[in-house]
């Protein structure tokens, strides 16, 4: 890869940078002991998991679809490894890839949706069809070999439903094991929508499944409370376990403590009837829905990202977010404190908790779990791998939640002056691997010119910064490092299960934050605005009122210079790393993202140097020894050698590639595909293209 001097990098990076910046780090590899130490981050119920929450009988398990010719799940296979056994495209021939087709969804922002599109979609491939959703939840089926449209279904999501951005990451598929050949909706495509609905259509025709809910739709606003467009939305594909569709929802951050509930619910995949509800603050009372006239507990942590289905155990694993106000916690309940920022395992047939593992205690940094967890075998034990926004990567026993790799303890952490009695002075930390880098120092400050660099150094000294887990402050700003989009976000990681290699892309940009006293807060919470007003105009926390707390919040995501847009820290701002699953050691680590779209004051330099840009979206690994990834803000789609980290092939996308790619096979020909639809927070051009490549036909 090309190397450049730090000074040249500073010049090249002095352009516009995305508001959402993720975190990187250096690892502290350590060989796991024969018996990893236990951590109190695991709930007490884990010790009783095997006896109190025995897995459901296997005779009700659904057929698990295989990855290879198909890409049947959002995470590739049922284990969410993002690994494909296809090997037609190899390190030796990948440079010969040619574009086969481009499909246009036709869904581009109009009217009040302008500047609010971040589609992020990853199609499924099942049989001869590609199945996808557009930014505004239009369901589309496309011929996987030609890109010709088979059908589309538009559920009519209005612009005012857009939360931060118009996003649909993907869909899920369920086959009725009792259906006869030719039955309508024998196999159905199910998605959650921005206006909080579950929609099911026939895979063959796109017609709504009339037996699912009301004419193919289930209203997720049921028992949640007042309908406020944009406050409560679904952006992730649901998990389907033992015939139960499990979904959470995104609750727009920072608006008010009295926010919609973070309840997670399971629905019958055939009828759409509520099977159970997991309201973490009232799990028994609200199991079948709240009592008449009441709603699910307001303001509780939610699951906005993608859950993982474990058909074998009958469990579903929920990466949980934070409470409705991220940066102030003294008003939270004990239930919120217990489950926020935790991986929670539920019995998918009953909705009962089996165990939970908390990665941040009393989270006041918005370090919610954004990545989908991955199922794997770890040294003979069925395990689950959990990446976090802080960069820590954990491997847990999937039946009990007990750590299989070492979990350490940070102690004597700063508690600050705002909530010294609330902020925890200890935190769990992975001693197996972390993407997190060393604490910032003054010499890490950067700028386009010496004056800009001096300005950043002054800002560094003006802020409170006491290293990792510096608590929020109001008297002056505080530096949050890693920033809230973390080491790993929704794009998740990929695992080559044959080679035993984990691939993780990451970012390395801090946030510069300040709690705003109530009498200085000028923004209004979403339920006091007009429908859709400013719903997607700011990054998370940029000017959030946090109604009900003593403070609002101001976040400079990426800590960018107000004049030049340059991050105040030195590049690289993003990278990709290969990790040995057996030892947790780094195999290689390199920047990802060139300077071609960055330059002084937003002027593209078109220089191909690998400087490492912010990135959003994950990767795919293949038996052919390749890592396919877009994600970076340079609009390139890459193939990387999994053994060395060398880029072997790249191509320019017509819009931002902030989506997870896939690979599949049709008639013996391997295809690789990614959506090029852009991302307004990442400040990449918006489009509507889904593009496929393959080797030339003989």
UniProtKB/TrEMBL annotation:
Molecular function in Gene Ontology: quinone binding; quinoprotein glucose dehydrogenase activity
Alphabetized Gene3D superfamilies for the sequence: Quinoprotein alcohol dehydrogenase-like superfamily (2.140.10.10)
Cofactor(s) listed in the protein's UniProt record: pyrroloquinoline quinone
NADP is among the record's keywords: no
Domain Pyrrolo-quinoline quinone repeat: 71-672
Keyword RNA-binding: no
Record PANTHER family: QUINOPROTEIN ALCOHOL DEHYDROGENASE (CYTOCHROME C), QUINOPROTEIN GLUCOSE DEHYDROGENASE
Organism placement in taxonomy: Bacteria, Pseudomonadati, Pseudomonadota, Alphaproteobacteria, Rhodobacterales
The name this protein goes by in its record: Glucose dehydrogenase
Gene, per the UniProt record: gcd
Family recorded in the similarity comment: Belongs to the bacterial PQQ dehydrogenase family.
Region of interest: Disordered: 20-58, 516-554
UniProt keyword annotations, A-Z: Oxidoreductase, Signal
One of the record's GO cellular component terms: membrane
